[in-house]
Amino acid sequence: MKEHPHTEETQADAEPRVSASELERARILDACERKDIDKLKDIAIAPGGFLSDHLRSRSWPILLGFDAGVVSDISKDVSNSWTHLPRHRDEEQVKLDVDRSFVYYPNDNSQAQLEGKKAELSDLITQVLRQQPYLCYFQGYHDICQVLLLVLPASLRTLAVSRLSVLRIRDFMLPTLAPAIVQLRLIPDLLHAVDPGLCAHLSRNEPYFALSDTLTMFAHNVQRYSDIARLFDALIAREQVFSIYVFTQIVLRRRDELLEHEEPDMLHFALSKLPPDLDLDAVIAEAARLFDKHPPESLRSWRRISSASVLKTTRDVKALGRQSLQDGHDFFDRQVRELRWAERRQKIARVAWANRTLLFTLLVGVSAIYLRKTPAWAGLLAWTARLVSRS
């Protein structure tokens, strides 16, 4: 009987092959099924992230610390009771910002469809703020919420935005942006560790140029929906501080361009705009390597970050799943107390400096009495008082 040497190969070829994308999809679904945070973190850094909005709807809730299935069932029985809650103090600003939303995407919707999405966005933000009335709205918050609205089904949006707001971007929703400014100090520290020359060149500008991107999770400046959804995969899967590493890595990739700018104003303008042709997969992978090589604890400004800051309370992504909205509220209250105490210290210091001559005169008098008018000490204090009065 004549053999057919290619029979086995022909049979193998006849079997359906599983594509790489199908294997990756199965890998994501398996990680979601097992709620494997570590695996989801790895996938979020890999090229393509979670690949599709359907898979993001499965992954993001797990990373934000809630069970999508339970929330979906509950939401069917929940009425619009939030509409009867007291108005939030920032609702007028919310309306102004929502009117300016959906500028870049989606770009295949009719005007009527866009108006419908704006109404949904307004309700989403208003509901979250009324249910967490202590939070302070900031301009650009609507950009973040817009992404979650487009990615997630309606039943998951409110809890996703609430947990993101209270547990991930809480520092930006305090009564002042001072904690957000403190976070920006980590950027020069990172740049100095990697590229001291570029750091020195940029040091003529305060790192305020990074505020818009870090504040809005890059949603304000990234113009393609596929790009911002993919970037959110990494930002939601990783520690909150990871956005600092992403911004720093973008700066490092633009080294030659930035060194060409000598004027501080032009440099600030260039840094505050993202280049349109960013290779986000490469940026994210490089930022992850930068994070591993220079963890936040190695940066000088890390010690200035409050222990109640989201940068430290989400340092372990798994901890997020164990934190409740009440935990976030408690952290918020701690940060507010710290801010008020810092403001009081600054006020006392300003008053003391403004009245330094009077205070020093009193010090001289008290010291003279205490030292029993010792001529040498009295003379020294009098000379110091005259010196202070001239300053």
From TrEMBL:
PANTHER family: RE60063P (PTHR20913:SF7), TBC1 DOMAIN FAMILY MEMBER 20/GTPASE (PTHR20913)
UniProt keyword annotation of ATP-binding present: no
Region (Disordered): 1-21
Keyword line: GTPase activation
Record carries keyword Cell membrane: no
Source organism, top-level taxon: Eukaryota
InterPro entries attached to this UniProt entry: Rab-GAP-TBC_dom (IPR000195), Rab-GAP_TBC_sf (IPR035969), TBC20/Gyp8-like (IPR045913)
A GO CC annotation given for this chain: endoplasmic reticulum membrane
Record SUPFAM superfamilies: Ypt/Rab-GAP domain of gyp1p
GO molecular function: GTPase activator activity
One of the Pfam families matching this protein, by short name: RabGAP-TBC
Residues annotated as domain Rab-GAP TBC: 50-239
Record's protein name: Rab-GAP TBC domain-containing protein
One annotated GO biological process: endoplasmic reticulum to Golgi vesicle-mediated transport
